[in-house]
Amino acid sequence: MSAASPVIKLSSPATQEYWEIPVLFEDAHLLAIDKPARLLTSPDRYDPSRPNLMRLLLDAVAAGKPWAKERGLTYIANAHRLDFETTGILLLSKDRPALVTLANHFGSEVPKKTYVALVHGSPAQDEFTVDASIAADKFKPGVMRVGRDGKRSLTTFKVLERFSGCTLVACRPHTGRTHQIRVHLKHAGHPIYGDGLYGGTWLMLSSFKRDYRLKRGRAERPLVSGLALHAEELDLPHPITGELVHIVAPRPHELNVALKYLRRYATPGGAVKAEDVDGLPGAV
Fold first, then answer.
1. Residue 258 near residue 118, CB atoms below 8 Å
2. Catalytic residue status for 59
């Protein structure tokens, strides 16, 4: 990684929001950042006025903001997307030739993308695959569904830790459909915590801590305030050199805190050991 600032600072004058976004990997052609929750990757087709990461980045480059100027950036583009509330690795290109190759990589299922999700219930098997086509729901804009009329979609899952009523799973999407992991986990009967769009509810400490007491006048808050889905690892050949690039995004603080409480209060008989996720079935 270069000696440039390890943090990208962005702001939205329209909404008075401010973000400090960590840089996870960088070289002459690539820039990988740790996308925060509740920030769109690209413009919202239903509400273009909402702040989105790519518009903020492009405006910052055009304005010559310090983080962009010190890198000599004149071009930046995203090779893929993350959902509004999903955190973790977002890979960007600094030049057009690298973007073209990256687009081909993501289009042909070359990258290994590993997410972690905290889901409802306990899967029957430690490893399982969901091979179910996904299509847009004609009656619910912005919502996807499993259906034979959809596009081929394949995700493999592996249990990392089991708790009372919920499970931490590693997720490997082998195709890149909108909301794929979320839809497939709902289809498997294990929606993600915080995913109200696909059947998930909030993870509350009171639901598993027996002696939980709330101070008078206070309302309990969820342990994870948004979608409990994080893009944790990305492996792919470098678009210019061909060498393997391995990128890791640390888990969000909220997720780590939630796991700490679950390990203390909701682990019947001890947690399942988290093994190397390279053992996922069908991994590419």
1. yes
2. no
